[in-house]
């Protein structure tokens, strides 16, 4: 046998071995790919097979006694770095037909794109002094503001008109129902606005309001209807859920549970949610429901808010009881803390501002774009289950609408601060009558 023949025989004898090795490699590749796909399917918000995140199922009923409700006396025994835990939730399946047609219809009439028009014939829709439920924090004229132009601005969409406000029609929409606002002090301002818009057509003996508490209820007996406000500034359970005593050194939340609040809001027929401002106040302490001994983690505001929005969305998506409710989410309310953003070279804020910004598309630092995108991503997965009331851009123009110094301040201000009005101006909340009335006109438009 020649050398060439021996080489050919040896080459043929290696083929079965090489084929076997190739088959093993292919099989392992398939198994690895299937495992990767399984990981991605289980953790849909993370497409990386290298992920080391732990996914938490939110809103589980407590199974042990160590889970205590958070209150203003709650403290973290220890605080560590954020562990990377994520909320496991699955959005609703895309809706066909009706939902798509509804969205297309809304796009043809974008009521959130427009301009402010001065209208001293039709606005304000009520007088500040005629509303017995007005808050001293929002009653700007009562507390010394003499220029009343802020009360006379009407929102005019570019290509259509808002439905004209009608208190009787609104009460008919609410007949036999519970309308509940859930959120922070800005949502409370919208709640007060709604009461002031509606209360005048209800006889005094047919209306009542409960004392200020976490859940405050205005009732109209002749319509068997209520307009309610639930103080839940962070939406999930937190140590800031006392409506009065919530100015704390550290914010502690249970990022995986809305159960304390949802037990109250699930009885309402129409829900209006908001949350934003409190997430802009620095890091947040996370106390997961499965953590004993008050072992907390610390996370930046945006990251914590994303966890909370997902926990909130999970509750709405996973319970059939929400199918019969109308649910709205009000987007972030802007602040006007730096006048240089609309007037170059100035160093003030909203103090002494008397007219809206007339630069269409103006966007200041008081509205955080990454937060807006995150909220949009969460709400998109909820489909038509939640309708969005986008108040951000239209409110951005209203640098003139804040109380600034014309409100009741609960603390005594020192003389040096009183001598410098911008130093204590409230450029966060809104005077009433004013901007929140338009938010409620938008709500009326969509109900």
Automatic annotation (TrEMBL):
Keywords: Membrane, Signal-anchor, Transmembrane, Transmembrane helix
GO CC aspect terms: Golgi apparatus; membrane
The Trichome birefringence-like C-terminal domain, residue ranges: 163-445
Organism: Linum trigynum
Keyword Membrane in annotation: yes
Superkingdom, natural source: Eukaryota
InterPro entries, alphabetized: TBL, TBL_C, TBL_N
Major subcellular location class: membrane
Family assignment from sequence similarity: Belongs to the PC-esterase family. TBL subfamily.
Domain Trichome birefringence-like N-terminal: 107-161
Record GO terms (molecular function): O-acetyltransferase activity
The protein, known as: Trichome birefringence-like N-terminal domain-containing protein
Membrane-related topology note: Single-pass membrane protein
């Amino acid at each position: 046998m020649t050398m060439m023949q021996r080489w050919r025989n040896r080459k043929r004898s290696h083929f079965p071995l090489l084929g076997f090795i190739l088959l093993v490699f292919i099989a392992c590749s398939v198994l690895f790919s299937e495992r990767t796909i399984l990981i991605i399917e289980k953790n849909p918000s993370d497409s990386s097979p290298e992920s080391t995140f732990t996914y938490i199922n939110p809103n589980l009923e407590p199974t042990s006694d160590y889970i205590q409700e958070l209150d203003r006396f709650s403290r973290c025994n220890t605080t560590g770095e954020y562990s990377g835990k994520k909320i496991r939730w699955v959005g609703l399946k895309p809706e066909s037909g009706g939902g798509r047609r509804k969205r297309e219809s809304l796009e043809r009439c974008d009521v959130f794109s427009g301009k402010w028009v001065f209208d001293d014939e039709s606005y304000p829709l009520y007088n500040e002094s005629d509303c017995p439920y007005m808050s001293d924090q929002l009653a700007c004229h009562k507390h010394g503001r003499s220029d009343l132009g802020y009360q006379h601005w009407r929102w005019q969409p570019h290509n259509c008109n808002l439905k004209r406000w009608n208190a009787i029609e609104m009460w008919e929409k609410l007949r036999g129902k519970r309308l509940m606002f859930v959120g922070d002090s800005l949502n409370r301002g919208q709640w007060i606005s709604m009461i002031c818009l509606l209360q005048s057509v209800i006889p005094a003996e047919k209306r009542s309001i409960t004392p200020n508490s976490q859940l405050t209820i205005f009732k109209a007996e002749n319509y068997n209807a209520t307009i309610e406000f639930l103080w839940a500034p962070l939406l999930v359970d937190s140590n800031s859920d006392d409506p009065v005593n919530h100015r704390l050194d550290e914010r502690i939340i249970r990022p995986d549970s809305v159960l304390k609040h949802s037990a109250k809001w699930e009885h309402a027929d129409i829900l209006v949610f908001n949350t934003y401002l409190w997430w802009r106040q620095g890091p947040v302490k996370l106390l997961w429901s499965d953590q004993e001994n008050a072992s907390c983690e610390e996370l930046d505001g945006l990251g914590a808010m994303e966890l909370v929005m997902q926990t909130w969305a999970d509750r709405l998506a996973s319970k059939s009881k929400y199918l019969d409710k109308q649910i709205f989410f009000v987007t972030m309310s802007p602040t006007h803390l730096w006048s240089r953003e609309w007037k170059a070279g100035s160093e003030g804020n909203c103090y002494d501002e008397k007219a809206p910004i007339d630069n269409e598309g103006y966007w200041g630092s008081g509205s955080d774009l990454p937060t807006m995108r995150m909220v949009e991503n969460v709400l998109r997965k909820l489909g038509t289950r939640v309708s969005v009331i986008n108040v951000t851009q239209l409110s951005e123009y209203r640098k003139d609408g804040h109380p600034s110094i014309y409100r009741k301040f609960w603390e005594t201000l020192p003389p040096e601060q009183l001598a410098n009005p911008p130093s204590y101006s409230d450029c966060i909340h809104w005077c009433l009558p004013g901007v929140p009335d338009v938010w409620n006109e938008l709500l009326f438009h969509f109900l």
